[in-house]
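Let us begin with a simple case.
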Amino acid sequence: MSYNLTDEDKKRIKGAEFYEHAKVIMQSFEDYGCVNVGEVYHIAYTNSEGSKNYVRRYGSERKDKFMVIHKDEGFIFAKRINSSGGMSKDVVCLTIRYPSKSYTLELDDEQAESIIFSKESEFDPFKEGKNLAKKKNKARNINKKQIIKFADELVAYQFVSTLKQGDKLYDASTGFGEGIVEWRVKSIVKAVTNREPQTDWNGSLYAYGNTQDDRDHNTAGFTERIVVNLEAQGELPKSRRWINRGRTISFVDFLVNSRRDYYSSRPSTVDDV
């Protein structure tokens, strides 16, 4: 007995619960069947701009590595090799999380080379991570000496008052020099704050003003407001393309409790040490 599907039938079949998702997993199950335990992979995909990219940690410029730790036919389970040369605790099913419809598993170059030259016993998937961890620590220690931070508000304010148009500052997404952006002082605005600093009943300063800069300066007891306008130079790193090329800062950005670090010179990277 046969049945001729109507257009409505086809529409309902396609919209059946989990049908399309199950098809994607079934295809991945078949495509990943040749993957073996112990193999290390990078995971590639095509981004929204149509260019090739890789799965990586947020803010990182280095490709993630995944080691296959278990295989249940076409279901492949892996752990991420972290930057310190160990493995993460989390286990991910590559078949489901990174289906072959959207992703491609690429064997690690060093492992592929060891297979080609019959030196698989010499391949250490953690070697690169351990070496990288040492370089990160070295770069981080160098960069710490270049961070501009002050514990005293007045000293931070005095530093900002010395900045002039054309001066350079740097920041980065990590302490070891990933995602470096060079900032140049575009302009400096000085003005009297909206109100004189006020004190409460026990003599503590509190803030008045229409802008955060006014409130910051008032709270610190400064009657003059200094605002520095920065402009990013050159092409932004891929990991930081989302940031605004213009930025406004004041003395609070150089206090020890500031969430962002600025450097007096270009930070060192793992490739520099």
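The second case is a distinct protein. As before, the sequence precedes its structure tokens.
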Amino acid sequence: MIRDEVIVNGLNLPRMGKKKGEKFYPWQGAKSPFSHKNFLQIIEVQKDLNNMNLRALNALNNGASSLLIKINNSEDILIVLKDIRLDICPIHILGGDQEKVSKAIDSLPDSQKPEEWHGSISTRNFINEFDHIPRWQNRDKKFSSQKTTLPSNVRTICTNTKNISSTNCTDKVAFSIYNLAVQLNSAGWDNSKRCIVFLEAQENYLETIAMIQAIRILWNSYLEENGKSDTTLWICGETQDKKFKKNPPEKLVGRSLEAQSLWLGGCDEIIIHPVAESTEAEQWARDQFLILAYETKLSGHKDVLKGSYLLDSWSEKIISEAENKIDLWLENSSLIMNKIK
């Protein structure tokens, strides 16, 4: 049965029901943790901590709605987060020591609602698929008791597609799913509610959308297999981060299209990297997100491209190829762990 789906700009896309017995269900992947989308501002902490705090507050007052804070010293987080409400603003922390960061946040004033912290915490990113399997196990077991004291929506099982050198979207999907599965096989699947994926947009607009959907759909199959089908998956997407010295405003259109593909694919939070090294360019990036959110009317619709034959078949192909890679990697990781034991 075929019927038309009318999307925001008036384009009619035909929708066709799947034949009985087919396993692929487009746009029915792991659920998002919330219905709205956030602009994620990166704060790379430097020596002047008070200035870092001012930068964070300025970003939140001018279009940003969540923060990714990169730190070296765990205690720095106390100054950087001054006057920021953790029940309103998602906070992602990269670097430092997990236990020390957790304790530092817990010591924030009650007015900042530290008990309602939501976001993620990660101290390191693993680059090679196999070399760090023992470190995954040791880290997860050591931190497992700490996880139970963290607020329920702080994600500690993290993966990032930038940590694999391949630019192939299938490899990125496979690496993301494999990475999460290995950590949960160690920490236990009850921690699946702690999962978060960070990914970078592809150069191809539609490929980015298909890649994100493939991650959600494939991860949902793992959740169902382990009895966790109601668990959400938090996805943060970022544009390319190339800076331009010559005529940076001319590059805004391309950067906007990358952000739009991340939005349409189903990312929960979006990082739009500035096209130049300047405070003006940083504000351009936030303005680009606000345009997406409030002037394109995308925020009032879910799964805008649902029903596209091209995207459905593209996601299905990515999933099929990624599953083969994941099965091979999991088999190899099992062999490695048996040798270690």
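The first strand starts at residue 2 and ends at 6. The chain has a mean pLDDT of 85.
Keep these points in mind for the review questions at the end of the chapter.
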